[in-house]
Amino acid sequence: MSASLSPSLASAAPTQRDLLDFVRRTAEDHALIASLPLDPEGRTWVRLEGPGGSEAWLIGWPPGTGTGWHDHAESVGAFLTASGELKENSLAARLPADGWKTLELSEDVDRERTLGAGKGRAFGQHHVHEVLNASTSEHAISVHAYYPPLPQIRRYSRAGAVLRLETVERPEDWQ
Fold this sequence. Notes:
Layout: H1 7-11, H2 16-27, H3 30-35, E1 44-49, E2 55-61, E3 70-71, E4 76-83, E5 85-91, E6 102-104, E7 110-116, E8 120-123, E9 129-132, E10 140-147, E11 153-159, E12 162-169, H4 171-174
Antiparallel strand pairs: 1-2, 2-10, 3-11, 4-8, 4-10, 5-7, 5-9, 6-12, 11-12
């Protein structure tokens, strides 16, 4: 523990702002960003040490790749584009945590953001979104952080206004 931090601050759970500050600082580490191996066809990633016990990732996005619709369950998070440009489609609606397989969304819930290098965002629990590199020629690299460490990721399919829960992944599925 750093001598400049009181024990209560050192053990406090990181907030969305803390996570956003972390991904911003990490994205400014040009040597780290340049060290990520990039694959021309699939996303690449390296796990990082996040603040306060958070889970963090450096992710490379080839042109045309994306996550599909998903959420991070009870975790809050932040991500920032370190290079290239990412697009985030999200839902401005809080979904029920459990007990459903299909929902019909109202027509005013869709949000779209374009996040160029140096741009990012924080989000709360149960934030449903998809992130993609819409470029046809350039890789993108981003930094992500979540707290608490991801207990699960719920993946969805979407057809128009219908959102369907497809799978629930646990940490052992992606680590």
